[in-house]
């Protein structure tokens, strides 16, 4: 008579005689059986093979000779549409919100008899910087995101990920990172949200942490302005704008290189053991539903990003105004900071003004250049026709005059371009990274990693530049 | 259970636990553990080894007869627990993370000295009490049971006879990496093996002819395959399927583990699935395949681990 203990002991011993991969085989059989049951019950339409035109299109989009020119062309057209198409609406918004709106609000505050500091803080600080952000950010996003969503819905973007996957595989990332990086050209916060399409945790984290190396549309104006004001003017007559455009392209490509380098480093060090598995579905091509796409991309991407930007621009505007107006001893807070950080900034080829601008412009990269101009005017005491602590924009020649008076050289412009590429993401993006990763650690990494890289890069460039020019 | 946790420094504890593992290994294989063998295993001086052995005897974990040391009953329980922790941790790394196979041993070696017994049991429950670690080593059970197995090294396996890999020694690391790069993993079947002049072994591995260097063959332990698992003769790999070619999935290779395996199963890559290779990316990998009506891109290293069968094959019950 066997006791229960005997049976258990025998079971334990017999367990060792089962094949090692028993569980895998059982799981496989269950999946196989499920597939067979489904196969018996589902009738497919005859000729389920892919349609001939879809096959032709796939061939065209993935062929080594045609794939890359088409991809580059499409990206080029979208960027061109965004930059050119945004000019007019941006100008209109700027007229409405910045010029008219500012004057109107100022008038109301004056009429209500509010004290000058309140009007300065609310109207010149908070309102103006928010109006700035909206008028500069809204039009490009309202063009870029719907274009992007249309291509995604049509099925073009998955093919781009497919074509570029080999490069991303080499650095330990996912081909879909190409898409999130392209999205980052519009807005890094949107690029970070877009990483949801990557379903393996490690590759998704890599895509989030490196998205900042895509120059977002808040940084394009900085790049273009610096390139045309300082680098373009070095070129012989007639070549200025081409050289300027070329130097911006170089910076953007450098960003791609940094993204790859950082992905490679992350995948081989801290993210080495994170769960990963590759999969990429190439959906059939289908004509996108234009109006639905327009609506959802406006609501989901444009307005959400814009709302976050506004939320952060309000306090930043107040900070900018206060830093220029709160006196500490005989100088404003801003002047104290600028003078204290000048030597450190000099070692990176920058100026204290730039560092301060990057700190108070954390909410939005768009306001970096206006902040720099405003602060330079404040520090050098030049007159600009605007009150101190007021953001403004002006033509290239004036910009050059103001900045040269602030001690700028070509080196400063080059280092600013590099620093603009390589610094902490804006607060909207950081907040989004926190929302997506739910981790303060990764949010901190995403802020500090590019910042440290940018400091090292600028310091190296400045040291080499100075060594070369001093001889 | 006795534990060094509170009494000694972490560094000493690691030395003592590593020494226990060495003694267990010697007891299991019937070799005697000596001061010299322990000094070699710990990569320390003989004096140090003697000290460690003295420590173990003092705690009643080891006894000595002549030159050779053996574990006491208590020592064996302790050593099995350390081994159990190590192997369960490796299993966890393989199944639930994507830690590269080459790192499993090193990571587990760090973890084995830190995990509490309760945490280890919880880990075992979570993994459904696995019996073997990813190298094919049996994991001591909660009750302290460790089966003895009769395995033959591949170096002494007869030519032409099919063999199933049961275990691959994970040290030295460099050789293990070579074995892994060849696609060898516990559970894989070798067929038509033939010893070459220099001791290397040429064999068919999942539809591909490979040469296993002589240095690796002693690390690989094999048995005869189960009667029901002989591989069909015309087995191939999805990565070798030409563009436009069609095939039926036979199985996923045993080397395909963890999230990677689950993902493929989720996509419907299961025995019997019809697959057609549609087109390749400009760089050659990934390639796109029609799987159950969807167009799915797979990288080459994934396709390499999907074993396929030609479409119309009378021998294959799955296509019939």
Could you characterize what this model shows?
The complex is a heterodimer of chains A (471) and B (320). Chain A is an all-alpha fold. Helix content of chain A is 74%, strand content 1%. Chain A has helices spanning 4-15, 22-41, 52-62, 67-111, 116-154, 156-170, 177-186, 188-194, 201-210, 220-231, 240-268, 290-325, 333-347, 352-360, 368-380, 396-405, 410-421, 427-437, 440-470, and strands spanning 280-281, 327-328, 331-332. Chain B folds into three domains: 1-145, Arc Repressor Mutant, subunit A (Orthogonal Bundle); 152-229, Roll (SH3 type barrels), CATH 2.30.30; 236-310, SH3 type barrels. In chain B, the strands form three sheets. Chain B has a six-stranded antiparallel β-sheet, with no helix packed on it. Chain B has a six-stranded antiparallel β-sheet with strand order 9-14-10-11-12-13. Chain B has a two-stranded antiparallel sheet with strand order 1-2.
Shape of chain A: elongated
* Run of helices and strands of chain B: HHHEEHHHEEHEEEEEEHEEEHE
Number of strands of chain B: 14
Poorly predicted segments of chain A: none
Alpha carbon gyration radius of chain A: 27 Å
> Which strand order does the major sheet of chain A show?
2-3
Helix proportion of chain B: 25-40%
Q: Radius of gyration of chain B, rounded?
A: 23 Å
Q: What is the share of helical residues of chain A?
A: over 70%
How does the overall form of chain B come out from the CA principal axes?
elongated
- As residue ranges, the low-confidence spans of chain B are none
**Quaternary structure classification:** heterodimer
SS-based structural class of chain B? alpha+beta
CATH H-level superfamily title of the largest domain in chain B: Winged helix-like DNA-binding domain superfamily/Winged helix DNA-binding domain
Q: How many strands of chain A?
A: 3
Mean pLDDT of chain A: 86
Using the coordinates shown, work out and report the CATH topology of the largest domain in chain B.
Arc Repressor Mutant, subunit A
């Amino acid at each position: 008579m066997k006791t229960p203990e005997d049976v258990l002991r025998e079971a334990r011993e017999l367990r060792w005689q089962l094949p090692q991969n028993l569980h895998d085989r059982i799981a496989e059989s269950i999946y196989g059986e499920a597939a067979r049951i489904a196969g018996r019950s589902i009738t497919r339409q005859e000729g389920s093979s892919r349609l001939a035109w879809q096959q032709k299109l796939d061939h065209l989009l993935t062929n080594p000779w045609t794939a890359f020119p088409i991809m580059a062309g499409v990206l080029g057209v979208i960027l061109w549409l965004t930059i050119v198409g945004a000019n007019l609406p941006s100008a209109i918004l700027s007229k409405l919100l910045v010029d008219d709106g500012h004057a109107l609000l100022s008038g109301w505050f004056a009429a209500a008899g509010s004290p000058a500091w309140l009007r300065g803080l609310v109207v010149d600080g908070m309102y103006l910087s928010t109006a700035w952000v909206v008028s500069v950010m809204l039009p490009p996003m309202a063009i870029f995101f719907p274009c992007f969503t249309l291509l995604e819905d049509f099925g073009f973007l998955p093919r781009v990920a497919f074509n570029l996957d080999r490069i991303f595989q080499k650095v330990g990332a996912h081909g879909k990172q190409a898409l999130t990086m392209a999205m980052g050209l519009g807005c890094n916060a949107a690029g970070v949200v877009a990483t949801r399409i990557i379903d393996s945790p490690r590759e998704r984290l890599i895509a989030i942490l490196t998205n900042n190396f895509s120059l977002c549309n808040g940084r394009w104006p900085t790049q273009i302005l610096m390139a045309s004001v300082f680098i373009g003017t070095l070129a012989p007559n007639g070549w200025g704008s081409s050289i300027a455009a070329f130097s911006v392209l170089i910076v953007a490509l450098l960003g791609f290189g940094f993204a790859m380098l950082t992905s490679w480093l992350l995948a081989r060090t801290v993210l080495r053991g994170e769960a990963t598995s590759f999969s990429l579905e190439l959906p059939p091509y289908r004509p996108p539903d234009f109006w639905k796409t327009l609506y959802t991309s406006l609501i989901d991407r444009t307005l959400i990003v814009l709302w976050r930007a506004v939320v952060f621009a309000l306090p930043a505007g107040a900070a900018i105004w206060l830093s220029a107006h709160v006196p500490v001893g005989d100088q404003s807070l801003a002047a104290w900071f600028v003078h204290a950080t000048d030597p450190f900034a000099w070692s990176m080829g920058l100026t204290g003004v730039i560092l301060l601008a990057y700190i108070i412009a954390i909410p939005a990269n768009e306001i970096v250049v206006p902040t720099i101009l405003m602060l330079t005017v404040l520090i050098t005491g030049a007159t600009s026709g605007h009150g101190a602590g007021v953001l403004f924009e002006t033509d290239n020649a004036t910009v050059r005059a103001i900045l040269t008076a602030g001690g700028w050289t070509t080196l400063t412009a080059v280092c600013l371009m590099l620093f603009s590429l390589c610094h902490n993401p804006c607060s909207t993006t950081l907040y989004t990274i926190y929302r997506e990763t739910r981790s303060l650690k990764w949010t901190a990494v995403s802020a500090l990693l590019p910042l440290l890289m940018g400091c090292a890069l600028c310091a190296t460039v400045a040291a080499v530049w100075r060594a070369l020019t001093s001889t | 259970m006795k534990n060094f946790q509170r009494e000694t420094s972490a560094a000493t504890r690691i030395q003592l636990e590593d020494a226990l593992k060495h003694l267990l290994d010697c007891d299991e294989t019937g070799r005697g553990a000596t001061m010299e063998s322990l000094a070699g295993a710990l990569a320390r001086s003989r004096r140090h080894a003697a000290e460690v052995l003295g420590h173990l005897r003092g705690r009643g974990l080891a006894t000595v007869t002549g030159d050779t040391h053996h574990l006491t009953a208590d020592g064996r329980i302790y050593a099995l627990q350390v081994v159990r922790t190590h192997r369960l941790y490796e299993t966890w790394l393989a199944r639930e993370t994507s830690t590269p196979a080459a790192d499993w041993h090193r990571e587990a070696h760090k973890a084995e000295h830190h995990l509490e017994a309760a945490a280890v049991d919880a880990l075992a429950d979570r993994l459904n009490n696995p019996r073997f670690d990813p190298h094919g080593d049996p994991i001591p059970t909660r009750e302290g049971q460790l089966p003895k197995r009769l395995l033959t090294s591949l170096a002494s396996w007869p030519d032409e006879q099919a063999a199933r890999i049961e275990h691959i020694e994970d040290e030295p690391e460099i050789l293990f990496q070579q074995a892994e790069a060849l696609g060898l993993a516990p559970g894989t079947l070798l067929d038509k093996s033939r010893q070459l002049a220099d001791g290397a072994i040429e064999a068919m591995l999942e539809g591909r002819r490979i040469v296993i260097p002589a240095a690796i063959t002693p690390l690989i332990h094999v048995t005869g395959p189960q009667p029901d698992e002989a591989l069909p003769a015309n087995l191939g790999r999805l990565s070798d399927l030409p563009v436009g070619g069609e095939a039926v999935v036979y199985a996923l290779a045993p080397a395909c583990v963890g999230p990677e395996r689950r993902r493929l199963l989720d996509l419907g890559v299961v025995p019997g699935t019809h697959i057609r290779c549609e087109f390749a990316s400009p760089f050659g990998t990934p390639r796109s395949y029609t799987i159950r009506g969807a167009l799915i891109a797979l990288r080459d290293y994934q396709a390499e681990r999907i074993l396929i069968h030609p479409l119309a094959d009378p021998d294959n019950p799955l296509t019939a």
